[in-house]
Prior knowledge:
Blueprint: H1 3-8, H2 15-22, H3 27-50, H4 54-60, H5 68-71, H6 73-77, H7 79-93, H8 96-110, H9 114-135, H10 138-145, H11 153-160, H12 171-176
Helix pairs in contact: 2-3, 3-4, 3-8, 3-9, 7-8, 7-9, 8-9
Amino acid sequence: MSLLSLLQQSQNGQGLGALADQFGLDADKASDLTALLAPALGSAAKQQAASGNLETLLGALKGENQATLFDDATAAASEAGQMQGKAFLDNLLGGSDGADELTNQAAARVGVDTSIVQQFLPALAAMAQGGLQKNLPDASLDTMTGSSPAGGLVSLATKFLGADSKGPDLSMLTNLLDADDDGSVLDDIMGKFLK
């Protein structure tokens, strides 16, 4: 299941529409934005992991209290939700410049005012983070970072990149971060952000 598929399941399939309503955004435009942004976020997360920042990425997914952002579009769109989403975006995209560039590209592609995407993207990121946390509880993430002999970060990174059969099972994480649902972790590099 890709990150896009995960977001489409929020609030029993009503989450993205409810999130669009929070910003007065047409449901079709919100769907188009999500179809662009979700794969970009998944690809950015994989780039972080491939660059040796897997521990940071897994740390950003911890905090099961954030899972409510997946189930409640109002919470994701709130000021606190957007702040949480912005922090998650900055983590994934290497700072606010990356988020700004992604916002501008998405707004131009879909034909939505940039100011709306500036609010929608952090809320969407908060919802995605909540969904990832809901599907990957802290206990699961702890086994991935591993204090066991088989679970150090070196074996974790090689397992994530498909080079080692030992170490923790990262299949759920890699599936969620597969941008185009083709099962490959490394082929979804974004160019810059959006293909």
